[in-house]
Amino acid sequence: MAVQVTANPTSLAWSNYTQTDNQPTDDDGNNVDAFTKFAFDIPVIRTHWVTQKVGFDRSKTGKLVSFNMDGAYTIRITPSGLKVWKKIQQTAALLSHEQLHFDIGVIAGQELVKDLAALSAPTMAELGKAFNAAVDLHFKTRSKAVNVQYDADTSHGAIAQKQKLWKDAMTACLNGTSTTIMGLPF
Q1: Per-10-residue mean pLDDT, the chain, length 186
Q2: Tens digit of each residue's pLDDT (9 = 90 or more) over 43-77
Q3: Phi, psi dihedrals of residue 67, rounded to the nearest 5°
Q4: Local structure of 158: helix, strand or coil
């Protein structure tokens, strides 16, 4: 596949964050010391018509439209709305915790690429609907569920042993040796 997912920057730094006088809140309204979100940019990926065998007897053929994944496309993941509370110490441990929140976006993008390669539909409109559903599934539904579980399991990074388990699981995902993180699918 020629579709890539890149993060820019690959590693977050405290300089990426805006310091706030008030304690930031996460998407669920909980007060947190730092808050990390990601944005994604998906290029227009060309489509093509393919002829496929249809039906159980495989004697009929039909045309379906699918994404042409052979082009050079890059899905970009960037930080968005990064905030850190001025009253807390900006430690390496907290930044490492926040990095994993950002990396969730990278994994969501990688899993989206796999889904796009498998998508096909009888019309462009139906392919567009399937594309939007796949984007929502990975970048909204699943990434939010993973983020919420991550913070719950690690108590926002305060439980060092759980933080290490999550970091190891994320490393496996980023290296392509796992398609789930802590048992949660992307």
Answers
A1: 89 97 91 96 86 55 79 94 96 97 96 91 91 95 94 94 95 86 80
A2: 988 888 776 555 555 555 567 888 888 888 999 99
A3: -80, 140
A4: coil
Beta bridge partners of 121: 65
Record the tokens describing residue 156, joined without a space: 């926002």
127 closest CA partner among 41, 63, 185:
63
Burial string for 126-145 (b: 16+ CB within 10 Å, else e) reads: ebeebbeebbebbbeebbee
Which strand (E) or helix (H) includes residue 127? helix 124-135
Q: 3-class SS at 87?
A: coil
Domains held by the chain: number = 1
Q: In what order do the strands lie in the sheet with 120-121?
A: 47-54, 60-67, 120-121
Q: Residue 12 is part of which domain span?
A: 3-185
- The answer to whether 124 and 65 are in contact (CB under 8 A) is yes
d(CA 97, CA 17): 14
Count of positions (residues) in the chain: 186
